From TrEMBL:
Alphabetized GO MF terms: oxidoreductase activity
Endpoints of the signal sequence: none
SUPFAM superfamilies named in the record: GroES-like (SSF50129), NAD(P)-binding Rossmann-fold domains (SSF51735)
CDD domains attached to this UniProt entry: QOR1
Phylogenetic placement of the source organism: Bacteria, Pseudomonadati, Pseudomonadota, Alphaproteobacteria, Hyphomicrobiales
Protein name: NADPH:quinone oxidoreductase
Cited Pfam families: ADH_N, ADH_zinc_N
Length: 325
């Protein structure tokens, strides 16, 4: 029997249920993966509540990414073998003991990562890569302002931004989160409750402002960001955990600024070649030890609701993983 977290009615994490199902037979082109760990992302919470742009038909299993071992290969599946250690990419369905997927959904697990790190790598770091490289086009010497730097995508942006040669200003809600951001390369640290970040950015940059803003928070944070940007700034809209912000067009005009939406997954679906370039770079940087997700919590599968609450309550620092063993 296979355990899976199931959403039968949209709502809070506690409305989900852990259920058991018989393992189904493979189709010829499919692969069975024994899941060792699954990564949590904020879209999992939104999807279970019916508040995400993707609305799977009920019932469904949440979870966008996992890592594990290939345990069975269909007769027509190519490029994969039993025993391969892999990352599994999904739109939903990862919170389970076992996943039946196609070879195109599999990526080799970096040898430098354990299963929890592998299961929490590609979504967060893929989003940061797409934001900073494909959309924001960060250049060496530019000032990058990263909001929510204690979160999974925020920490990834700190790492990648520093690797690209930017001066990184990290904002977060606690000293503990900022300490992790500093360990990942942040040059300047700002706690929201101690100094308005717009004032801090102006102070740090001698009034010039940030060249690129990485914003997974939204709401008032997005609106205040427009008041501490440099000429030609790019404001990257990653998400809206703090609400949906409004763009002041006069401020954008005065600064010659751009607001860019970031949808890493959709960009790959529109242009698969773009995704392959991103994936190759992320795997190379992982093997070289340049990037590594910070997994602050590892919980057993039956604690799925508690794990999702860590994201909702912003208690996680970096990433949260569900462990199957």
């Amino acid at each position: 029997m296979v355990r899976a977290v199931v959403c039968r009615a949209l709502g809070e994490p506690e409305a989900l249920r852990l259920e058991e199902f018989p393992s189904r037979a493979l189709k010829p082109a499919e692969v069975r993966v024994k899941i060792r760990a699954a990564g949590l992302n904020f879209p999992d919470v939104l999807m279970a509540a019916g508040q995400y742009q993707l609305k799977p038909e009920l019932p469904f299993t949440p979870g966008m990414e996992a890592a594990g071992d290939v345990c069975e290969v269909g007769t027509e599946a190519r490029g994969v073998a039993v025993g391969d250690k892999v990352i599994v990419k999904m739109r939903h369905g990862a919170f389970t003991d076992e996943a039946v997927v196609t070879p195109s959904q599999l990526t080799p697990k970096p040898s430098t990562f354990d299963y929890a790190e592998a299961a929490t790598y590609l979504a967060g770091h893929g989003t940061a890569y797409h934001a900073l490289i494909d959309r924001g086009r960060v250049e060496p010497g530019e000032v990058l302002l990263v909001h929510g730097a204690g979160g999974g995508t925020g920490l990834a942006a700190v790492e990648i931004g520093k690797m690209l040669g930017a001066t990184v200003i990290a904002t977060a809600s606690s000293d503990e989160k900022l300490a992790i951001a500093k360990s990942r390369g942040a040059d300047h640290l700002v706690r929201y409750d101690r100094e308005p970040f717009r004032d801090a950015v102006k102070r740090i940059t001698d009034g010039r402002g940030a060249d690129v803003v990485f914003d997974p928070v939204g709401g008032q944070v997005f609106e205040d960001s427009m008041r501490c940007i440099a000429w030609g700034a790019r404001l990257l809209v990653i998400g809206f955990t703090g609400g949906i912000g409004s763009a002041r067009t006069n401020l954008l005009l005065i600064k010659g600024a751009s607001v860019l939406g970031v949808r890493a997954g959709e960009a790959v679906r529109k242009n698969p070649a773009l995704g392959q370039v991103r994936l190759n770079a992320l795997l190379q940087w992982a093997e070289e030890g340049k990037l590594r997700p910070n997994v602050s919590h590892r919980l057993p599968l039956h604690d799925y609701a508690k794990a999702m609450r860590l994201l909702i309550d912003r208690k996680a620092i970096g990433r949260v993983a569900l462990m199957m063993d």
